[in-house]
Amino acid sequence: MSEVASLAQRLLAGDRRALARAITLSEDGGRPCDELVQRVFPMSGRAQSVGITGPPGVGKSTLIDCVIQAERERARSVAVLSVDPSSPFTSGAILGDRLRMSRHFVDNQVFIRSMGSRGAAGGLSRGMGNAVTLADAAGWDVILVETVGAGQIDVDIVKITDSVVLVLMAGAGDSIQALKSGIMEIPDVIVINHAEDTRASETFRHVREALSLRPTSGWTPPIVKTQASTGEGVGNLQRALGAHRDYLASNGHLLERRREIARGQIAGMVMAQLAARVECAIQTEERIDSFLSDVAARRKDPVAVAQEITNVVTQARSAAQRANEGV
Ligand SMILES: Nc1nc2c(ncn2[C@@H]2O[C@H](COP(=O)(O)OP(=O)(O)OP(=O)(O)O)[C@@H](O)[C@H]2O)c(=O)[nH]1
Ligand SMILES: [Mg+2]
């Protein structure tokens, strides 16, 4: 049996170390990861996946700790995936997160892992999307994905979970501005954390106003006030998430959401494959090499050459496809 096949088998049997290893593969994003995802994908789709996003420092990890607690009380297993705290937005957070979620580290029904990306731009959301698939196939009941949206929320990263929670902080005017500038469609639930802050009610009103600009659809995001440091309001967050889950379960909304996830995921994969092909063609194709000299010497312009390279790459693709099909 190949190494990946055996890893897939252990992962599907619920082996935690296999999941950890699989996620490392998804950070690398290479061929073994693709093969693994292909093997386990049919067994995924059962988990409840929830993205928790929001500006730095608003209390996302503290809130996740509370959600873990609430889910464990219902005997559900929880996997937490977060963006690598070595990213510029979250420097030094890993120690803090270890403290914040420390009470769950010894629980074998809780899996906590931070992820980075060694690949190109977009690699992180691709790796994270794959990691969600892997944790799902591995049988975790709830998958929480923590991402940082600095100012404007990273739209890509939120397209990998069934529900998205946007966490804001009481008194955070900037975040509400960000809400108004076009991200209203992203969250399914909005949390105003630091509910003990006297500005919480005012922030609540601002968020409600911003939400009223959102095109009406079947689902209106509930706004929930929490104080993550004490656990206050977390029950309401759980209820809001449950309501969203019920909404998705009705009238084919879940399939629609998963089509959206598939769209983002597949587009990312196709772009990565094409980018690799372009990179390879530029390195190895003599014709392209001569185009570069033509541009340098002003015999051709870069726009025309880009078009020609696109032609070369897409021709190479159909040639490869033909070879594949045995034509
Ligand atoms: N007063 C108060 N403090 C809170 C609350 N929630 C979290 N905190 C504190 O805020 C700080 C940051 O919380 P985190 O949970 O690390 O925030 P985060 O959004 O995960 O931060 P990054 O991952 O770095 O973006 C910690 O010291 C928490 O204890 C709250 O409701 N009220
Ligand atoms: Mg955090």
- Could you estimate the helical fraction of the residues in percent? 55-70%
SSE string: HHHEHEHEHEHEHEHEHHHH
What is the terminal separation in angstroms?
Answer: 31 Å
Number of helices: 13
Which class do the helix and strand fractions yield? alpha/beta
* Mean pLDDT figure: 85
What is the 3D shape?
globular
Unreliable segments of 5+ consecutive residues:
86-93
Strand fraction: 5-15%
Strand order of the largest sheet: 3-2-4-1-5-6-7
- Report the strand count: 7
Let me know the largest β-sheet. 7 strands, parallel
User: How large, in whole angstroms, is the Cα Rg?
Assistant: 22 Å
What ions, cofactors and ligands are bound?
Answer: guanosine-5'-triphosphate, magnesium ion
Describe what you observe in this structure.
- The structure is a single chain.
- The protein is α/β, with parallel strands linked by helices.
- The chain contains 13 helices and seven strands.
- It has helices spanning 3-12, 16-28, 31-40, 60-73, 93-100, 123-137, 155-158, 173-183, 200-212, 234-249, 253-284, 286-296, 302-325, and strands at 48-54, 78-83, 110-115, 142-148, 163-169, 189-193, 223-225.
- A seven-stranded parallel beta sheet has the order 3-2-4-1-5-6-7, sandwiched between helices.
- Helix 5 (93-100) links the parallel strand 2 (78-83) and strand 3.
- Helix 1 (3-12) packs across helix 2, helix 2 runs antiparallel to helix 6 and helix 10 (234-249) packs across helix 11.
- The longest helix has 32 residues, at 253-284.
- Bound molecules: guanosine-5'-triphosphate and magnesium ion.
- Residues 60-61, 93, 97, 146 line the site of magnesium ion (MG).
- The site of magnesium ion (MG) has 5 residues, from helix 4 and helix 5.
